[in-house]
Amino acid sequence: MAFLGLFLAGINFACIPLFTVILWQKPVETGRKFLIGGGVYGVFLGIFTAFNFGGAFGPGVIPYMSSFLLGPLAVVGLAVTGIFFYRAKQESRARWMYSVGSLVLIFMQISPVLGHTFIGGFCDRKTRQAGEPIILAVNEYVKVQGHYPETLDALIPDYLTEIPVGACFVTFHPAAHFEIEPCEAGPILVTTTFDFSKDMRYFFKTGEWSSISFLDGACSFLE
Predict the structure, then answer these.
(1) CA atoms 130, 136, 141, 142: torsion sign
(2) Cα-based distances in Å from 187 to 1, 23, 69, 148, 222
(3) Which of 27, 28, 156, 206 counts the most CB atoms within 10 A of its CB?
């Protein structure tokens, strides 16, 4: 799986010199078509990273980490190359295409970070929203029973008709399921996904959501 991440990141970076060569030697229209394909690939890579982060151990981590190196390199490389390109090319369309292409190529390099940040953040919000009815039901259960339920199934049917799931782009990524877990500091509501890529926890004592460290476990650093 690491090879897949390296392969995708390599394709992403290779587009920079390839675009420059195309614009030097081919018609402007060829460069435009190349940029359209590159923009689509950047969107794909952002989505791929968001849903293959794997708790910092999936193939999506490699494009994500490479963005912090390739992004600045792309800016510097395109700026330096642009100086020579503008001196050699007098055609306004070619110059305009290089300027637009530079922005697209920079977007491609940082798309894994954008995907993980914005798509991942959106999915986190959707998961927290899905967990709100469970939190309300657990708090009501505690008021009536005087203790926390051992499992969420104890909430059905008196407090919930069914246990919600955190669904976010389920076409790309399986839904997150909720479980209640006892900890020394107090019970928590945790989400579980197939690769631990977006697991979170809700601490009933503080009323706060936080991410779960794959290495430390769900009950670590609650207080």
Answers:
(1) positive
(2) 35, 60, 41, 8, 10
(3) 28
Task: Look at residues 221, 208, 119 and name the one whose alpha carbon lies nearest to residue 169.
Answer: 119
Token pair 């839904």 in the structure block, residue: 175
User: For residue 213, with 0-12 CB atoms within 10 Å meaning exposed, 13-18 middle and 19 or more buried, which class applies?
Assistant: middle
> For residue 121, with 0-12 CB atoms within 10 Å meaning exposed, 13-18 middle and 19 or more buried, which class applies?
exposed
**pLDDT above 70 (res 175):** no
**CA atoms of 80 and 74, how far apart (whole Å):** 10
How far apart, in whole angstroms, are the C-alpha atoms of residue 120 and residue 129? 14
pTM for the predicted model, two decimal places: 0.73
Angle at 120 between CA 215 and CA 185, to 5 degrees: 40
Q: Which domains does the chain have, with CATH numbers?
A: 2-121 (no CATH), 125-211 (3.30.1300)
- What are 10-55's pLDDT values in tens digits? 888 888 889 888 988 888 899 899 999 999 999 988 888 877 766 5
Q: Do you know the residue count of the chain? A: 223
Identify which of 158, 215, 155 has the alpha carbon closest to the alpha carbon of residue 189.
Answer: 155
Q: At a CB cut-off of 8 Å and minimum separation 6, what does 105 contact? A: 15, 16, 19, 38, 74, 78
| 211 beta partners | 200
Helices 61-88 & 92-114, crossing angle to 10 degrees?
170
- What's the CA gap between 115 and 60, in Å, rounded? 10
Q: What H or E segment, with its residue span, contains residue 179?
A: strand 177-181
